[in-house]
Amino acid sequence: MKKAVRGMRLVYLGGVMVPLIGLIALLVGPLLWPVWAEVKGGSKIYRYRERVASGYYEGYEVSPRRARATVARPSTKRGLAAYGASSALVRIRTRLPDSHRGLKFYYRNSCVECHPKQTRNLHSVRAGITCRQCHGAEPIAAIKYHYSPMNPIRRHAYVCTKCHEGANVAFGTYLIHEPRAESAAAKENFPVLYYAYWMMLLLLGGTLAFFIPHILMVFVQELAMKKKKPAIDFLLFFIPNRFIVQWREKLIKKWKPPIDKLIFFMEQKFVVAPRQLLSKIRKPANDDAKDIH
Amino acid sequence: MMTQRIYIKRYTRIQRIFHLWIILTFLTQADTGFSRLFITTDFGRFLTWIFGGYATAIQIHFWGGVLMMVCFGTHIIYIGIKVDWKNWKKSIFGPDSMVPNFQDARHLVERALWFFGIGSPPKFDRWAYPEKFGYWGVFWGVPLLAITGLMLRFPLLTTQFLPGWVLNVAALVHRAEALLAIAFIFVVHFFSGHLTPSKFPMNEAMFSGCVPLDEVEEEKPAWLERLKKEGKLEIVQAKTPPLWYRILYFSFGSAAFAIGIYLVIGAVIYGRYVQLH
């Protein structure tokens, strides 16, 4: 027992205390340094500029930077050939002041006919909010157009605050049109969500994959075990007993020594050896004293 | 005729109160949570109807969560009082503690091998490894659910310190951790507590606080040996619970079991019709 306790102390310090400290640091860290949360608009100088500005913004001022991790990567690639930087500004619809410019029969269509996937969001499904309540009336500016109300620098003020009074810039980076967590799109545009999903699924799957066979094992064995007997006797009750006995003896002969060896080896390596190492580290002075005498 | 069985004490009164507390809050949280998660299906609409609508369900969910957090906080204080700090190494890593140790890994291997008829059954001490796993599952699950739940409840406050996309992740983690907890409690914990042949129809220990001596001899031989060695066997002998109390906790436990199974079956049937976002 004592051996195990000694070994476990190391495991405990490494395996429990370190993650615990990490978790605390993760939770407390942002409190000390809120800058991380705030996108540009959070800084005093930008707020000042916004107040005094006449509505004109430089491109670098309004293009999203810190929050880009969750927004689809801008690309000039369309079809086979890429657009140049200046023609991309005109030709790519996600950057136009009127994103539906020149579409035929535009006014006869509803949004969902062309954007069926975009209805899959919490606001539509659970709160019954329609597209126009956020995206506004015609002309609907493209999401990456600098002066769009949906631009991350003013989205919180023009859109979110309609319902969420007091929303700030960081609040505006909540992803409404969230990709499915397990999809390739999420892996590319929102990796944190993607990996969180797979981690939780692994945890769920791992726990159930271990414990459901475990409870079934206990169930079967207890059914079999009026007097303590291995469950295999119960499972193989239709085979004549002598075969089982022989088979089990063979199994024990084959597997008992290597398993005992393995347990012994593990104990030596993880309990006895660290203990010796620790005792060596702890008592160097005594050893020196012995040498002198 | 039944012979008189000797009972020994396994759970103190405060431990049983903690368990009852977590049962009540957990069932509330599972029901109200499912009512919101499954709102796009008939199953969810029925649950929501019970709890007085979509908006009321979340209020109950919030206050249930607060009670659960209070339970957790009280438990932390209880641990702080219970640990013998002068003798902390023995108290924390000893056999009466819930902290896992090397012995548990060994018991697991022994248990699996014994299933195939190799070796002898593991000699469990007071807490066996599945019990420890369940305890630590709740111990980490409650703070995780509490933190993500509070973040989602107070998004404006959260986004003063964290970027908004953290809320996307928090919603996912809250949902996934809740499903993990529900799957573990309503499938694994209920199966081993109610349906295992030796425990059927219900494991009374957590409500009555005591277990019969012959059962301990069979399941936790190392604990019994330790008690005998320390001469504590007479001290821990307990009275059998009165009949009215047995009737009460049998009906309560069966009701909890029924609710759990109802939720699991509903989730399996209606899971494919859930529209999250």
Structure description:
The complex is a heterodimer of chains A (293) and B (277). With 293 residues, chain A is mainly alpha-helical. In chain A, 57% of the residues lie in helices and 0% in strands. Chain A is built from 13 helices and no strands. Chain A has helices at residues 2-32, 44-52, 59-62, 85-91, 111-114, 122-127, 131-135, 155-158, 184-189, 191-224, 231-235, 241-282, 284-292. In chain A, α1 (2-32) crosses α12. Chain A is elongated. The termini of chain B are far apart. In chain B, 28% of the residues are buried. The model of chain B has no long low-confidence stretch (mean pLDDT 89). Classes of the chains: A mainly alpha (293), B mainly alpha (277).
How are the secondary structure elements laid out?
The complex is a heterodimer of chains A (293) and B (277).
Chain A: H1 2-32, H2 44-52, H3 59-62, H4 85-91, H5 111-114, H6 122-127, H7 131-135, H8 155-158, H9 184-189, H10 191-224, H11 231-235, H12 241-282, H13 284-292
Helix pairs in contact in A: 1-12
Chain B: E1 7-9, H1 13-37, H2 42-50, H3 54-82, H4 88-93, H5 102-115, H6 129-153, H7 155-158, H8 165-195, H9 205-208, E2 210-212, H10 213-219, H11 221-230, E3 237-238, H12 243-270
Antiparallel strand pairs in B: 1-2, 1-3
Helix pairs in contact in B: 1-2, 1-3, 1-12, 3-6, 6-8, 8-12
